[in-house]
Automatic annotation (TrEMBL), chains A, B, C, D:
Family matches, as InterPro entries: Acyl-CoA_dehydrogenase (IPR050741), Acyl-CoA_Oxase/DH_mid-dom (IPR006091), Acyl-CoA_Oxase/DH_mid-dom_sf (IPR046373), AcylCo_DH-like_C (IPR036250), AcylCo_DH/oxidase_C (IPR009075), AcylCoA_DH/ox_N (IPR013786), AcylCoA_DH/ox_N_sf (IPR037069), AcylCoA_DH/oxidase_NM_dom_sf (IPR009100)
Required cofactor names: FAD
Organism annotation: Nesterenkonia aerolata
Subunit structure: Homodimer.
Pfam families, A to Z: Acyl-CoA_dh_1, Acyl-CoA_dh_M, Acyl-CoA_dh_N
PANTHER family xref list: ACYL-COA DEHYDROGENASE FAMILY MEMBER 11, MEDIUM-CHAIN SPECIFIC ACYL-COA DEHYDROGENASE, MITOCHONDRIAL-RELATED
Family: Belongs to the acyl-CoA dehydrogenase family.
The keyword Oxidoreductase belongs to this UniProt entry's keyword annotation: yes
Domain Acyl-CoA dehydrogenase/oxidase C-terminal: start-end pairs: 248-396
The protein's name: Acyl-CoA dehydrogenase family protein
Acyl-CoA dehydrogenase/oxidase N-terminal domain residues: 28-136
Length: 413, 413, 413, 413
């Protein structure tokens, strides 16, 4: 049971059943096949963005192939998989950098859908979740702010929502609002009380006072809709724009983040797998100093290290996904560790693939340099490696003290 | 289903059932409690060996506590856990360096028991497995030989068994025969044909011609019975000394090694966990430059890295253990990767704990330096990190080629 | 004495004198000042190229400031520093990504000038070296070829030069011909005999048969003139186009490469230093969780690791530079080790700076992501890390055997 | 000029001259030859201590060979080399773990001699330095105390010296007093005022009130005389027992530590070199899977990484040694960085050598496991890696701020 859900009154979802193994294998086969047959041939050149019309056409094919929105409940048009069965599907989708977008399980929409499913009212779900799940619109998440505001430390949030009689007036500035350029709405966090008191709001991007200002050019390409600054200038919303209960925004953010950082791991692991395959193919076709590249020991060292990175990432992702269904609190703890390990590991795998491919690896002859730029920011967003390490260490120290004083067993999920 | 067993006629075991979760949690609680309450207080000083009488007394208590021989079938006196449930139990036992010995799940006996259960005839089982499972005798495994003989490359085996009318005459020399000084019998590999043709024999250490010669002093302490050279000089055995079928010895060695290297990971992970706890306790009690050690960021860096090493190890161990029950071939592939990752990770964890404990870490004020010496050889035995990496890389290259030519799906266990 | 030069008859240079310490300190001060005052304000935005007119204007100022072409002999218009005094000057220039271009000590021109000084005839020097040294023209180096041709293994060269009565006819294809788009001439390597027999030619880019074909888009920006494919189609040259003696091209390549890869290290170390300063500035201005970023221990860990990377790089660069003047053979051996260490180290330093700067680090708010792309290829060109490691290991094995058999002392430079 | 010495009135030494290159090469040849011919054959078995009589006999031979006490001024019986020429000699001595002891340049005596030369009065020098330099007696250094006392943070010193009319009464407890069991005297630090006010005293171990209490067993073997606790119980000394001026003890400790941690680097680098040679020899003699071990790429990876570790260590050691003569303050800054890099690097080199030697590496068949235990504590003593990193980071931040505010040039030694 999702521990978080048990503490909640707003959870509308009953726990999902695992798809039986043979059906799941069949689904996985279809996803893999779809990615190879349909998605990969449609990939844009390195450094380019996917054309929106092409995207929509691919999405239509994904629906037909029965691989669309695998993480969303059936009632909203998805495949209804429990979190425990996301890892293999998301990894298969992520084998193409545009795969998750095509299957509609890309950030930030995927995390937003998951949170809406957990917290939104039926009316909010109809208005925001349904079109999002069907790929008719896209969304963004408004958390990060210009310094000094919410960043590594979310409690520094400065955007404020002031209560009026029938609703709220919101003022503030967000940045790194991934996807905002194309989004129909933003899920925005605003301070509604003392430190630690924040509320989530559903705000249409067309609402008066919402304004996209400066674009930030970043090195990734696969998150549609840019990473701009967004101004919220006296934005007025009704009470029913509140997502969940007021003042519990920071708590809800965890509901979103625990799984959301893990789904990043799943998707990027797929890209790491792709990079490793590109390197293996090169290793099998290039001849150096009289031997195939793959037979050179120092190349084998790189290949083996990447295998280890891939399999340890796979292992902690899958264990964490099961935990997120069974014990949300422990799952969130582990997802923090998984995030650090996987974000560093997938970076290393792609980096090694580049070494194995030599000059072509750092040029557009191969997509690897772009892959590296794609995953580089993941070591920073959703909590940087360093911020997580700091939290991991403090959590470890506290858990140990608790064990010693309470003599509680040291069970591990 | 154990894929290996399905190919075999000699497998006497039906697949084991998972212990229901509540019973399993209860067992885990008992093991943890027993280790803390009984085993840890009886640990020898760093650098010393456990006294044999103390060991036997502790074992008697372990039987009483219902935690003895967790991996052995009930009919031979064990707890009958499937491999999928070994990781948590073995880790809990390994929290003390002598825990696995006390619970009778230490190498090399544990691997020998596992193999005997899979391959031995009922008569062989009564004679060799039963007393081993009950802790009445111990055993050794005779594989490694002086150079140039079986080492990293087992096919170089030079010990030879010559067929006679009613049995075999065995000649050769083994070394690093862990446990031989105390063993009642050796499971010895001998060449019985061309390269790749070897047979396993059950040889009492008291048999004429078996002679322990030179002792090799190593840096570990927790494997009882030393690591001596053993001479096999015209050792005569009957046909019923053959374990399994003749000429399939190298194949059987894989049956032993796949799980055996994973159980090492499980046990040593327990010791890494112990080292981390010792470091956390130090971090909570020492004050430096005006702050608790655990509050210094560079200490937190070490603590966090160790948490990541511990949790990634735990994750790949558990996934591999499940696979060894479900798909033995894939489980063996993954156990090779797990072995490299875990052996390096547990070493790093203990090494960091030493740094956190300063001068006491490299002296007998704490057991950490001995722990480091305990796990150092694990990066070498059961296939060194480098040998495994070489195999991992070649396996990755071949799998990729197979996928490309057969267009087989790239499923991962 | 340059050991290589002693074997040569074509060396026109007498060994250079060290600039006295106070004059050298004065020069260093001028370079640092010039870079900060003139060069940095003129840097193009991340991802952009330096405008050629701006470049020429900056170069004029560099000449005026007495910091132009520090590595070139005075008679050709440079400052005449011996290799031992290049490290600090090149590092100071490299503090700006465009600094070396402005000071005319950027690859590939810098390495070409150095080689021309060593090998060219007086006439060739007048024609090619003088305008290059004065920054009136630029050049390229034609070594790398499409697979299977010269790459990691230069002996695989396929471009061929056929002797005619009065000259040569050259046919082949080069790629990654850095700078070719703007170059006035190419120093091209062509096979002129059996394996290991190649000759270097001075070829004007305007010569009939020389054709730039496909551009390769790479992730760096600071090497002017692209990295295109260049076709050599029946290119006819006279005998005086031969650089040095015929058939000794591979040997000369070492003359170029030993110092050339070390000057890369020097320049990129400057950029690493810059990245570290950007990170330190951020650490001093950002406040997180109630403390300055620079006071957080996990940030200090990154800063300290980068300091270590910078200082070890500095140390091996300076020692190698001295050796290249004193003992060219030993200097070349060490420059291979320095290349691996420094290319990996500068990459890590910039990578850590990005972590320290968070989201701004992976966007155009800061130039760091571009710096990372700038130095990424250096782990590949001039011999990849892996190719060098392979050579380093074999050299170590051979040296040890030589010592054992000849009982030669194991002196280190 | 030694920057520290210029601030001092007690420095009796004029700056030393470099030995001319040919004489120095000759000396180096003699040291290398002596170590190979005389010292190595006399090495004790792994885990054993060098017999004192054997030591004295070897020392007599070292004197005869003209290689004794290379770092001590000629007037005290040494060879009088300036610090800049220590690195190669100390490394050559350290090629055997007992080499430095035999040449009388081992810790803690070597550091004590260096400090006495800098600070002691002529009378103190006659009484303490002369017999030490001649190897007639040994010494210890009393700094570290039981927690909470002087450890990573020397200002926490608790041993106190109270002024009497004609001298001092000292009370306190020291631990990790390396060498105390055999020492004739201790240079002890005691608090003589507020925090940061401490004084150094020369105390004969036979003085009433000096008592060696508990021995601490550590994993190293080559520092003679153990690492015991030493009680100072109302120890009375005269005023002339003060080393240097009163209250400047912490400052003098830096005079000792800067060079002392660098000489550790030099000596241990010699042992790393030895381990690499042992591994190279093994690589040349072992055949695996049809090839020499040294031809396997994954072995080459290890060999190359160790070459890089050795050469970067050599480079920063030599640069730092030159600086310690030229600019003591900058030299001390760099010696902190060198200490971290070298202590970690030599550990890795020996660790890799063990991997290359397999089972023999972790047993007494080879001395490598003992070498690893020998260098493990060096990552902790003289400032642990973590303590140094913390200091390195803070120093980097401060230096950057200074540059920005004062616009001072950022010169590097």
């Amino acid at each position: 049971m999702n521990a978080w859900r048990t503490r909640e009154t707003t959870g509308h979802e009953s726990p999902r059943e695992l798809l039986p193994r043979t059906e799941f294998d069949d689904l996985l086969g279809r996803v893999g096949d779809f990615v190879r047959r349909v998605v990969i041939p449609a990939e844009p050149a390195p450094g380019e963005y996917l054309d929106l019309e092409v995207r929509d056409d691919l999405r239509a094919q994904a629906k037909e192939a029965g691989v669309f929105a695998p993480h969303v409940a059936r009632r909203w048009g998805g495949l209804g998989l429990p979190v425990a069965q996301w890892p293999e599907v998301f990894e298969a989708a992520g084998y193409s950098p545009i795969g998750p977008l095509v299957l509609n399980c890309m950030a930030p929409d995927e995390g937003n859908m998951h949170m809406l499913e957990q917290i939104a009212t039926p009316e909010q779900s109809e208005q925001f979740l349904r079109p999002l799940a069907q790929g008719d619109v896209s969304s963004c998440f408004g958390m990060t702010e210009p310094h000094p505001g919410a960043g590594s430390d979310p409690s520094q949030i400065r955007t404020e929502a002031r209560k009026t009689e029938t609703g709220w007036v919101i003022n503030g500035e967000k940045r790194f609002s991934s996807g905002a350029n194309l989004a129909a709405f933003m899920i925005a966090m605003a301070r509604t009380g003392d430190e630690g008191q924040a509320t989530m709001f559903l705000i249409p991007m067309s609402a008066p006072g919402v304004k996209i200002t400066r674009q930030i050019h970043t090195i990734d390409r696969v998150i549609d809709g840019g990473h701009p600054y967004v101004e919220l200038n006296n934005v007025e919303v009704d009470d029913d724009a509140v997502l969940g209960e007021p003042h519990r925004g920071l708590e809800y953010a965890q509901v979103r983040l625990g799984p959301a950082r893990l789904t990043h791991c799943m998707r990027w692991l797929g890209l790491a797998h792709r990079a490793q395959d590109i390197a293996l193919d090169r290793g099998h076709e290039r001849r150096l100093f009289g031997h195939l590249l793959e037979e050179h020991g120092i190349a084998q060292e790189l290949i083996a290290q990447s295998e280890i990175d891939i399999e340890t990432s796979r292992s902690i992702i899958r264990r964490t996904a099961v935990l997120l269904d069974e014990d949300f609190r422990e799952g969130t703890r582990l997802s923090s560790i998984a995030k650090v390990h996987c974000s560093e590991a997938v970076y290393r795998v792609i980096d090694r693939a580049i070494q194995l491919c030599g000059g072509d690896g750092v040029s557009d002859e191969l997509p690897l340099a772009q892959y590296l730029n794609e995953v580089r920011p993941f070591r920073i967003y959703d909590g940087s490696t360093e911020t997580h390490k700091w939290a991991i260490a403090r959590r470890a120290s506290r858990r140990r003290q608790r064990q010693l004083t309470e003599r509680t067993p040291d069970r591990t999920g």
